[in-house]
Specification:
α3 packs antiparallel against α4 (107-114) and α11 runs antiparallel to α12. The chain has 14 helices and 22 strands. It has three domains: 4-103, Rossmann fold, CATH 3.40.50.20; 128-201, ATP-grasp fold, A domain (Dna Ligase, domain 1, 2-Layer Sandwich); 207-446, 2-Layer Sandwich (D-amino Acid Aminotransferase, Chain A, domain 1). Helices cover 34% and strands 25% of the residues. The longest helix has 19 residues, at 174-192. A hairpin with a 5-residue loop joins β15 and β16. It has 447 residues and is of the alpha+beta class. It has helices spanning 11-24, 63-73, 89-97, 107-114, 116-125, 141-151, 174-192, 249-265, 297-304, 308-316, 396-409, 419-426, 429-433, 440-446, and strands at 4-7, 27-32, 47-50, 77-79, 101-102, 155-159, 169-171, 197-201, 207-215, 221-233, 236-242, 270-278, 284-290, 333-340, 342-343, 349-350, 353-354, 357-359, 366-370, 377-378, 385-393, 411-413. The strands form six sheets. Strands 13-12-9-10-11-14-21-19 form an eight-stranded antiparallel sheet, sandwiched between helices. Strands 3-2-1-4-5 form a five-stranded parallel sheet, sandwiched between helices. Strands 7-6-8 form a three-stranded antiparallel sheet, with helices on one face.
Amino acid sequence: MFNRVLIANRGEIALRIIRACKELGVETVCVYSEADAGAPYLRHADRSVCIGPPPASESYLQIPRLISAAEITGADAIHPGYGFLAENAHFAEVCRDCKIEFIGPSPEAMALLGDKISCKRMARKAKVPVFPGSDGEIEDEEEALEIGKEIGYPVIVKAAAGGGGRGMRIVRSDADLMKAVKSAKQEAEAAFGNGSVYVEKFLEHARHVEVQCIGDKHGNAIHLYERDCSVQRRHQKLIEEAPAPGIDPKKREDLCKSASRLIKNAQYAGAATVEFLMDEKQNFYLLEVNTRVQVEHPITEMITGVDIVKTGIKVAAGETLAYRQRDIKVNGHAFECRINAEDWAKGFIPSAGLIERYVAPGGLGVRMDTHIEAGYRVPPTYDSMIAKLIVHAEDRPSAMKRAERALRELIVEPINTTTGLHIELMNNAAFQKGGVDIHFLERLLAK
């Protein structure tokens, strides 16, 4: 096991990793930007190091500063969390070159699965269903037009690298396709430094279903069943649940086995999420693989009892997975509500500022993953998520009621949060029935 882990992240996930390390008897070093100086979670780390000004490009994304912080503090491993450099294969390679263990997949596995084009090719070899579309990068608009005519509209243009909806365009005609390819390439190049895009069939009424997997360095890989992440806005998830409601047991088995087969074939060590889109007949198609711990990992922990963060650290240290597939059972149902510092009633305007009053919900089956407290100032510099409310109960209706109760207990004042929207969703008839598609929230907000 490692002696000291440097956490190359901030906020809620930094605190989550600190807690996991403490339970493993591992010391922690937390880096922070000037915007995060004095943040409450820093006091839980054994050491903290300032790595630069507020902009992430000058602090959390600065590989030389992160490596220097690890070296001067004697850290023998770096945990990237999610976001920032978590899926940067170059960062993982630099860590390896500096003889610092990167807590995540190898640079080779990350590059293979993180690039959507190479991932799609590997999926075909592993007999994982993929969308019809281009075999690789689209070189020009004419090639895209040929594919559009072959598979039929609507199609979607996607960036090979990155995520979050950037470099992505839905297209319904030849005329729009040519413009979409050009603009998507430009946006992808600006956002990810990689302008590669590809074209594939677009599902009008798709569910976003993902499978949590984890592999070790000894060739073992298992799945921890699936989550439904269809409640999203502009490709950003707002509510996740596990297991996904209403899926046929045979489809669930095929889905989960496909995901673990892909991870195993990639010789992947660490936590990974294999994401799929599912149509109205529950046919599923690979969307992408996230080569890191996911924001929504707690709901899988709640239904399986597996500590994903601790397991990822153990795997990185060379330990064999403590679980076999037969050991993993689903127990009950769980929801995660992402509490963002936003005024959702006014177009999700960010709401940074001082938190004067904070009251966390409690009770059986309620978990609050957050780094905030009264007196904490939410900076305008970073992602607006300030907390994750996770609930677990014996079945979906009970979990939904528990989520609503906990949401009503939560107080974060005077800034605006998305709590009110989550309460509305828990009382929405369509959501209560389960199986909503990825455009459900957009339609609801448009009314």
